[in-house]
Amino acid sequence: MGLALTRAAQWTTASSGMGKLEITPLNESLLKEILHFVEQISARHPQEAKHVFREPLQWETSLQASDFTTEYDISGSCVQSREADGDGHPLLQLTPPDVSVRSFSQLTRLLQLVPDRKLREVRACLEANRDPVVQILGPSFASVEGEDSSTLRLLDKLKEDSQSGEAELTIKLLIILQQLDTLLLSNSVKQLAQEVRLSPAAVKRDVELLKSLCAAGEKKVLRSVCYTSDYEFSNGCRSPPWRQVHGEIAYLIIEPCDSEPLFITCSTAGVFLNAGVRHEAEGNAFDRRSNVYKDLVDLLKSKSPHFAEGINKKDFVIQEEPPTTLKIPHVEAVGVEAPGQTLGSYEHQEKNALKKARQQLAPNKTGGEKKFEPSLKWKCLGLPSPHEEAEERKMRRSGGSERATKSRSRFPKSESKAKPSAPGSPLPGPSFTDDVQTERRGDSHTDLPSEYWQIQKLVKYLKGGNQTATVIALCSMRDFNLAQETCQLALRDVGGLEVLVNLLDTDEMKCKIGSLKILKEISHNSQIRQAIADLGGLQTMVAILDSPDKELRCLAAETIANVARFRRARRTVRQHDGIKRLVNLLACVPHCVSTSSKQEKDMEVARCGALALWSCSKSTRNKDAIRKAGAIPLLARLLKVPQTNMLIPVVGTLQECASQRSYRIAIQSEGMIEDLVKYLSCDNQDLQKHCASAIFKCAEDKQTRDLVRHHEGLQPLVALLGEARNKELLTATTGAIWKCSISMENVAKFEEYRALELLVGLLTDQPEEVLVNVVGALAECAQRPNNRVTIRKSGGIAPLVGLLTGTNQTLLINVTRAVGACAADPESMTIIERLDGVRLLWSLLKNPNPDVQANAAWAICPCIENAEDAGEMVRSFVGSLELIVHLLKSTNKEVLASVCAAIGKIAKDEENLAVITDHGVVPMLASLTNTVDDKLRRYLAEAIARCCMWSSNRKAFGEAGAVAPVVRFLRSNDPAVHRATAQALFQLSREPNNCITMHESGVVKLLIPMIGSSDEVLQEEAAGCVANIRHLALANDKARYG
Amino acid sequence: FSEPTAMSKKMIQNLAETLSKQVKHFNKTETQCLIRLYNALLGDQTERKVGHGLDRGKFRNILHNTFGLTDDMIMDRVFRAFDKDNDSYISVKEWLEGLAVFLRGTLDEKIKYCFDVYDLNGDGYISREEMFHMLKNSLIRQPTEEDPDEGIKDLVEITLKKMDYDHDSRLSCDDFEKAVRDENLLLEAFGTCLPDAKSIQAFEQQAFQVTRFAGAMTHKYEQTLF
Fold it and tell me: Which residues fall in a compositionally biased region of kind Basic and acidic residues (chain A) (predicted)?
């Protein structure tokens, strides 16, 4: 019985250790059989039953001392049998909860003691003794797979000492046990053979059939048949993935004519009633509520007498059609279960589960967990544990080719585990086993989608066929849904890609065309793209671009367009001179507009070439190569054609390349802006998007911005703001508007088209890319005062301030700019202040990005200027002044200039000036005076002027050596610098020592012409400074000469 | 026939005049060239047969050497397709008409022509058996396979599945036309029976080079061909 136990019995854990016997019909019948055997043995073979076991059979029993009769020695809770072996050990010993038994006769008696718990005891005994024969006869009789020589050895032994009755008894017992084993095995095979297995296809067929019965007019036998879910997974199942792992295929609601609707589950094990799975199944709705029937017709027959009657009457009609459709094809006798079947569908479901779980029924938590609970059937199959499976999935995702080998190698493995190996095993009816085996082999093939095998077959014909067969196979392959990943990967896994790529190297035109047509389709898959590149397909396709056949050139270019989506592929194309050839394809277009078929074909070639260039243009080097190959004038010419499908790749390429300055200049000078503007008003959103994107990139240049306005491109751009649903388009449009609004003339136009209101409306609920552009545009527009009012009136201030809390650097730069610009409007400023915007701006000074710091500091300036009690506000921010003074250590000129400007504003408040002086602002400003940057000079001078309000600071600047460098600022050419410097000098000159330094630096000579300036402030300050110097000189003279 | 060249020249000119009006795709000069080529080919033949036209063997030689066809059966069928009156000889008119399709036929003409070639028994249908016959050498036979014809049979089924639109297990001309229009690659589904672009170009160059206009004409037609 060893073999039967290891093979047929279904254990909870397939591995060794303390397994439990599952409660399945199969195990139950096994146990009953064994029980029967034990009960009978004492009567049938009294001699053998008395044979003392080598080792006692020990197990945890439910028996108590009280269960034993007087034939036993009972002492407390322990029990011993009176019967003992030669050495005087009792044959039965109970020390609760353990019992040990040493002969069959004792075993029989024990079972008789507890008639109601017999089965339980047998089960416990077997669970504790996985191979009882070892205990009974000794370890040399352990059940082994394959050839078992123990009997022979025993026979030899028997011959050696024929006196010993012992050996004879042993051999008899062994034979008895082996007979039992054989019996058990053959019984379990019978059991297994009765199991049915449904497949999704079979269920579908049945449902179709039943549906047709519903439609049969007055004689109909059913009212309605419908699925609970319209969604069908690619494996044919309709149940949610977490139920598919339980083998469930679909749920049906069938309304018979004579009873309530039946809620039916179709699973691989058969069909049964469930607890009411409707469209939204919850909780225990999936539970089984009836027996399992082998198919739908059987179930209906038993549930609906009307149906049974009807179907019996109609039997003839059905049989006129192929009679098999009803049941036979899908009811497969399953031996030890088809291992691959479950594997295959499991794989499938996994994939689907990943993809579809979200779209399908809302993921059911408990269901999801259940998914990993191993089902009974898989256990004995050597199916990898969920963990292993998960790992494998990971592998499969990471490496394409690994998967193929792995999954292939898995089949034989699981098969060999699941199948009893025929040689040496004492199975009756070997022919039957063979049948099972061959059938199962067939099974494991069908578990992969049928496409897999069909594609494999076609690939075989591709390999071994002449041109004609190859073409037929190629055409047939195209009938598969090549957009489907299953087919793509199947094609790769059976070695189809190699063949297809090799075909490109042949001379056969038709084979090349057919092969490219397929490659074109499947190269949408990124793994396939990689594989094609790995096989050297790109080189061949690049070579084909020179072919005289236009169709071939088109296909090759289109396939290159698909494959060249990743860097390595793009490089390969370039390195094999592909760019030049692709650019040559563009050259086919004739100047005249005509529609002859030849020209149409030329256009198609050019279109495909443009597509490929578009893909390739994503690499910087390729952009150079495209330009060098002379593509720009060709693209410019193609930009004039009316066909949208041509324009999209052309404009796509242009906008991709417009990241390079040379292209931007070319786009401008070749007059392409006009065309780009024109297509902004076309009816294709993709084209509009690429045009807007190209304008976005080109409009960095002022001339381009003017051209866009000149060609009336601004209005269509504003009109496109209405397409708020297409986010990509919106990003491109707002980007173009932003860049265009850098020119004030354009801003005026935007005002006219009421763009600002629209832009403000886009400040909420948009992706960051859109926000960056919208805010950028608003920041530019707000440079004009009336637009600040517009922004405020359309409610733009609050969302702008809200965006100050973001993290996107580009967005922050734009937002600070925009808020700064708006802060110049006093009413807007009130709102900003109320929303705590200044504090937010201030905290952005801590941002690591210098651009953000600078823009935040710039924005702070108007805020301080326009806030009601700015001094108090600034002081209220803890550590704010220290922070800003600290920024004077920055190395970024823009940051320094902006911070100086801010300090200039802050220092207007005396108290704050005191604080920043304490933080050492004077020496820091002084150390900056050596700069030659005019912008910094200007704001630095302003800041110094402000800080000199305190006389001690004037002195401190002098001591820090700032005076002489400031005098040098006057040599700058910037009038703004002059003015600020004059202010600073005037303030500094109030300190006599500074006057001396200034005079020594030759300040008077520099200031004299400025007194004559038309700028009154400059005039005044310069004059004041000179006056201070003069006063000092006079005072000095007076002192000296009295 | 005492001065064949002089006579022929005159005759050829007249013949070309008439035939170029009846046969599509060739202009008068080209017709003339092709007639001359035909005569040259006839010249090699024995006197007895000259009266009837080009015989099968001669024609097959041309197909094989000039147009690169290889399959014997297909070549026979091509001969039959040229030989419209079924007299086992190709007359000058048949020659021109055949070549018109062969070299410059439109898709429609080629579909008709290919169907005729493949309809082995001329009953208007390509049957399973005919397909099998034509495809039987198209796969490398694996000696290990139980049924070496299995692949071929399968190929026939695949073709039927793809092309048999009315599901009568045979291809009518309509089926064939529909399938080819849907997928041009299926034009020569059962074996190569048309020359490839290269051999066409080579043939035309050779045949028409004698004429001054040939270059220009060839060029013009090349455009339509591609």
Answer: 367-376, 386-405, 437-447
Report residue B225 as tokens: 């061909």
If phi over 0 gives left and psi between -120 and 50 gives alpha, with beta otherwise, what is residue A57? beta
List the domains of chain A with CATH numbers.
Answer: 2-141 (no CATH), 195-446 (no CATH), 754-919 (1.25.10.10), 921-1042 (1.25.10.10)
Q: Which pair of tokens denotes residue A606?
A: 């050019």
Indicate if the alpha-carbon torsion angle A480, A483, A488, A490 is positive or negative. negative
Residues 102-141 of B with CB under 8 A from A: 134-135, 137-140
Do residues B63 and B138 both lie within one domain?
A: no
Between chains, do B139 and A464 touch, taking CB under 8 Å as contact?
yes
Where does the pLDDT of residue B118 fall: very low under 50, low under 70, confident under 90, or very high at 90 and above? very high
Q: How many CB pairs under 8 A join A and B?
A: 71
Based on its alpha-carbon atoms, the radius of gyration of chain A, rounded to whole angstroms, reads 45
| Containing structural domain, residue B61 | 4-105+197-225
Q: Extract the tokens encoding A788.
A: 């600040």
CATH of the domain at B160: 1.10.238.10
Provide the ipTM: 0.87
Chain B residues with CB under 8 Å of A601 CB are 226
Give the residue among A961, A1020, A1035, A1036 at the shortest CA–CA distance from A987: A1020
pLDDT tops 60 at residue B203: yes
Dist CA A135 CA A55 (whole Å): 5
Interchain pair A468, B223: CB under 8 A: no
* A342-383 confidence digits (pLDDT tens): 444 444 444 444 444 444 444 444 443 334 444 444 434 444
Burial of A974 (0-12, 13-18, 19+ CB in 10 A): middle
Residue A569 confidence (pLDDT)? 93
User: Do B101 and B8 sit in the same domain of this protein?
Assistant: yes
Q: Kindly report, residue by residue over A545-604, the tens digit of the pLDDT.
A: 988 888 899 999 999 999 999 999 999 999 999 999 999 988 865 555 556 777 888 888
Cα(A203)–Cα(A191) distance, integer angstroms: 24
Shared domain for B9 and B95, answered yes or no, is yes
CA distance B112 to B116: 6
Q: Three-class SS of residue A433?
A: helix
How many domains does chain B divide into? 2
